[in-house]
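Please decode residue identities from the backbone states below.
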């Protein structure tokens, strides 16, 4: 079992400078404590995501860490010109000395796509075509491609990544079909669903992987959770319940502004409802360990992805949670 971090970099009442400083300090802590990777989301024009340019934020994180993998989960491909994204990925992989990992998606928020003039109906097509161009440009010296929206002809690639043929790829799995696609592509996966649904997707992924790749090592199979660890369950729940409501407001901000129902997963109205669906835990190290052992065994995942900083959780609260998790939870789960 390995351990990672997922971060929306959502606004929690801090000014921007303080928010970035807090997150970078926590990233240094993840590095010290031996977490495998830090995964940041891409969102736009919303307090849900204060890293709308993930490459910029991760380039700062690369200079503050030594071992931690730095990843996007995900780049919203329809919002990126593939040639420019190839260059950003190469720069990040070089500046991190081969520690960059890349996740791609079609963009989970239709409102954000529309702000950039992208029709959400075209997003699946733009994602698939963009991914093909990006992967081509990362391992070939010249790019040629014809997509629905652009012609790329004989473009030389001056930059290249450290990792060959390209950095590892991540894919968010939310259906049996997406599990099959991820296995076909040889991608690592992340699930943000209740345990029963995640278990179905993971089984499909493992079955398809075995059919296609035989005895090749299984990629990382991640399951995400909101996690708060404290010295008492009472303290942990107080922090989690307060902070989740702030995160939830940010999560639904654009949908409420435009009078639309949210299409993103994340409808649980409070932290207790989240826990009832098996997607969050708050408690002592022993309670968190017991929950995560059950959750990871049920889903069949091998990569435990945690959200320690969300809503208005303070630096001190998050750091205490991380310290307790690293000291008591990680050793118990690592042996699974």
């Amino acid at each position: 079992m390995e351990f990672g971090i997922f971060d929306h970099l959502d606004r929690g009442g801090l000014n921007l400078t303080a928010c970035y400083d807090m997150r970078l300090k926590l990233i240094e802590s993840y590095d010290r404590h031996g977490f495998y990777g830090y995964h940041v989301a891409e969102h736009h024009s919303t307090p849900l995501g204060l890293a709308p340019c993930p490459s910029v934020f991760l380039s700062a994180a690369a200079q503050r860490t030594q071992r931690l993998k730095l990843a996007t989960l995900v780049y919203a491909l329809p919002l990126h010109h593939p040639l420019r994204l190839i260059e950003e990925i190469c720069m990040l992989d070089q500046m991190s000395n081969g520690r960059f990992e890349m996740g791609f998606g079609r963009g989970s928020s239709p409102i954000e796509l529309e702000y950039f003039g992208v029709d959400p109906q075209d997003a699946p097509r733009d994602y698939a075509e963009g991914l093909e161009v990006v992967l081509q440009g990362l391992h070939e010296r010249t790019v040629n491609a014809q997509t629905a929206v652009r012609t790329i002809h004989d473009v030389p690639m001056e930059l290249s990544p450290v990792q060959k043929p390209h950095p590892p790829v991540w894919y968010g799995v939310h259906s049996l079909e997406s599990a099959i696609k991820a296995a076909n592509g040889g991608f690592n996966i992340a699930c943000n669903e209740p345990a029963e649904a995640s278990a179905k997707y993971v089984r499909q992924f493992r079955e398809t992987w075995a059919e296609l790749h035989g005895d090749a090592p299984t990629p990382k199979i991640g399951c995400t959770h909101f996690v708060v660890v404290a010295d008492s369950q009472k303290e942990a729940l107080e922090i989690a319940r307060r902070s989740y409501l702030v995160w939830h407001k940010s999560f639904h901000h654009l949908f409420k502004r435009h009078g639309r129902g949210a299409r993103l997963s994340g409808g649980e109205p409070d932290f207790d409802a989240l826990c009832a669906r098996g997607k969050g835990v708050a408690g002592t190290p022993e309670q968190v360990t017991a929950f995560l052992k059950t959750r990871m065994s049920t889903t069949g995942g091998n990569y435990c992805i945690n959200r320690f900083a969300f809503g208005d959780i303070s630096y001190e609260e998050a750091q205490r949670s991380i310290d307790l998790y690293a000291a008591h939870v990680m050793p118990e789960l690592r042996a699974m």
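Observation: The first strand starts at residue 2 and ends at 7.
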